[in-house]
Fold these 2 entries.
Entry 1:
Amino acid sequence: MPDPHQIVAAPAAARPGGGIPGSSRAPRRVPLGVSFGRGVRPWLLLAPALIVLALLLVWPLIRVGQLSLQDYGLEQIVSGKDNYIGFENYTELLSDPLLWRTVLPNTVVFALVCVVGTVALGTLVALLLNLLGPAWKWICSTAVMIAWAVPALTGTYVWVWLFDPFDGLMSKVFAGLGLIDPATSNWFTDRVGFYSIAALNVIHQGFPFVAITIMAGLTTIPRELHEAAEIDGAGAGKRFWSITVPMLRPVFAVVTILSTIWDFKVFTQIYLMPGGSGGNDDVLNLGVWSYLESFAQGSYGKGSAIAVLLTVILLLITGVYLRTLFKEREL
Amino acid sequence: MSRAIRRTPAAKVGITVAVIALLIFALFPAYWMVSTALDGKAASRGSQLLPQSLTLKNFSTVINDGGFGHYLRNSLLVAVITVVLSAMVALLASVAVARFRFRFRTSVVVMILIVQMVPLEALVIPLFLQMRQYHALNSLLALSVVYLAFSLPFGIWMMRGFVAAVPKEIEEAAYVDGAGWWRMFFSVLLPLVAPGLVATSVFSFITAWNEFIFALTFMSDDSKYTATVGLQKFFGQNTAEWGPIMAASTLLSLPVVIFFTVVQRRLAQGLTSGAVKG
């Protein structure tokens, strides 16, 4: 891409309607202000954004790293003084069986299930939408948009209500089918039950992004490719794997990695479920554990160490994301 | 439509079933939320698919007795401040990265992408301590400024696509007509990217309106609760008043659902041009 100011002269000369007498003078010179601001202007334009991001995202990130090396509690909050203890929080964290037996498996397995579910469902929905006529396509994509738009917080409350062990619809239906005993069963106290409901919630909210993005990608595939393949005798499944998937590889990569990032740092959807905000250690994930360690237990140092661990995992995934983006095109 | 004609009856049935399944899956939670909110006997609803009696009682309970109207006003105020600030800041920054070539440009873009991935859980601890030190907890303005930071990376990323889509020749025509850069920016570029700005603003509105962790952590004064935090008031120690909770949830979701579906095409367009194809 050429410098924006270098090309000022060329296309302007060819501009239609340049019939004003003497207008041929115009392209000769770049206006004074334009050439003056050349080096400084982009930074001037970026300054507000960079200042906000530096103060509210980058500095806190450095600070959370510092906090993770401290024994930081109520005393330090009041005095405002640092209290460094080296890597003690990390050694404590990494030797904690809760991390290895509960929190890490919860976070990783949950993210995997949600990513696979979201991408698979989103792809199927995109393929379905692509088959429909304009009217039904509009109706279905609007429905998908509504599922996307419902806030995570209220969506979570609805799923909790649906699975409410006393009066919830699902509990009544399952009890009616004789599959559960309504008097004794509570899905939320069981780790698998709890996370199954959370996964349903997260997939329900996440599949629309995948569906809409892949649908946009599908429109870029020339129809002739599919028609040629069909004439050659390829079935729908064969065409999907041999044409759609390779053509949309970059789109799949982006939605998969973005979903992975989002599903690793799920907080609200877990925190707001019964037992999710500290009532049940079995259902903690990294984000909730970090929050509770800090704000419920008052050990901001250990909470920060957990937060740093989560951030490092996410940055590694982000690294993969950026490499994928760079491979596809120039940024 | 040659493809439609070739479809066998079995395929048609399959597609119909799939469409019905999709519509039910996508809309049922929203339906259940609204219908419970309208149900006079929400607590004993059980597996009744239709509300047993239609009433607005749950809505008046949350607004009059629960003070939810006040929380909604707080949320609105925070969201509007966030939208105004982030629209201005994101637009300027996106013009810089979409229209200028300068040293470290790629580094800036990469940094913007990276900070977008930082988990809020990692930021809430240091920001809480910082805000506490500056006595900025319980301040709606401070909360808006934090939300500004969260909505900026995505806003810049999305606006970048819209700015890049404006043909350079139009800008150059303005220069030829004697306009300086700022004149060109306000009279040419700004009107052309206005639709993108609307889409981006909707996104930052939703970010601020939906946010929960920071509002929960920063706001301890009941009168400063935003709607997401205020909603928790309707949960008892061991019980949940599902009628009022669903009514409040409906009030909270409605603006988002309306905004989002109204600008859906534009947003999807922005997502693909800014974030996917870019």
Note: Chain B is about 75% helix and 0% strand.
Entry 2:
Amino acid sequence: MARPPSRRPGHNRKAQYSLFASYVVAVTGAAIGLLLIVVAIFDPTGFAGIRAVTAELTRPVSVGLKNMVSGVSSIDEVLAAYWRAGSQNVALRRQVEADRNRIIEAKAVAQENARLKKLLKLVDEDASQLLTARLISSSSSSARRFARLNAGRWQGVQPGMPVRATEGLIGRVHSTTPNTSDVLLLTDSGSIVPVRRANDNVPAIATGAGDGSLEIRSLSAGRNPFKPGDLLVTSGIGGIYQPNIPVAVVVRVQGEIAWGFPLANPSRVDAVVVERAFEQVVTRPDPGAPAAADGAEPGNVATP
Amino acid sequence: MIDRHLHYVPRLGRNPSRFRLAGIPVITVMLGSSVTALPVIAQSPVMPPFGLLFLLSWRLLRPELWRAWIGLPLGLFDDMMSGQPIGSAMFLWTIMLIGVDAVEHRMIWRSYRQDWLIAGFAIIVCMAGGLFFARITGGGDVRLLLVAPQMFWTILLFPFVVRQCARIDRWRVMA
């Protein structure tokens, strides 16, 4: 095939000017786009307010579709379960047998705990939960990992609030619009969560890798203390996340870095809980009190 | 700018409406960008950028349809839908369209394969650029390998999207 008809306007002066003007507009617009990105380097949520328009418009669509497909989304899991179903069944039975004893023990411990707390007259008021909402869509085509939450500023959600499911941590609120908010998922490469090993408090930092896994770096010097199977929970350092929210399980150790997978899968969980930032919960409302900063410390250590 | 010849479709005294001629391509690109509204919570970048695919398809199928500035409004809409920083697709799509214009001037022979090649390069440039912008605006250490699978199947998907565009185009110009 020969080339398509030329777009050169020939001798028509008016057409020449119009073509030239279109390129001037295009280049100017591209420069403005570049400028917006430079602004975003220093203030990532600066122009995200524009996003409110589309977020609000697509919210009903996403919510409706979510209600329709929430049952279908786990179909791959169902199919995968058929693979080696027999041996899996035997292994799971043994697991259940082993777990039953532990559950009974745990129940006993919980009862004892409640009794002791009553004795100590310790009131465990939990003012951290703000609301429960659903994740309705995500930035599935971008390299960033954002999920959209079906609750926003008008429901009291503020940027920085942690988001969790019953299984574990999901992420934190990045930006809000009146009725939706964008959640920066745990697996985003810009998300950093201070964690510790559940059984012996080895501190570490969990950074997202962008592909669904987490990169876990130990804060202590020396050789990598992690081994596959280690459970990581939030440490409460930094003042955003409550301590003791399950985060990830280590699956592979590679030199200095351990690789983990989040315990809560945002595509599987039905509803997520938005919590107030940890610092707001533990510090007293009067500002400027020097004791406020120290107040966060016992919370981190008291509950191992 | 709409091709002047398109106003004389031989369907006895009827012309397609202006909205259909000019609006349908824009709407398809915007619908392509809106795929992210589907209730899929992706754990890695898996969804091909359908907005970009539709834009490229229309541009290569109908070179006279749009001037290069169309990348600005459509790119802005794509930025609002995707999680990319605002301005990312605005810049990349416009630059990409200017690039396609420049390449088209120099090419003597054009066929379907050359179109696919141009689209392939454009997709790689736009997605690598998007990754770079995500990285400098707080995305942390994102590797190019992360979007490599997405790039690969976006390029493979291009012929399919062009076919769908051609099908829509046939309906678009018929009154």
Note: The CA atoms of residues 32 and 38 of chain A lie 10 Å apart.
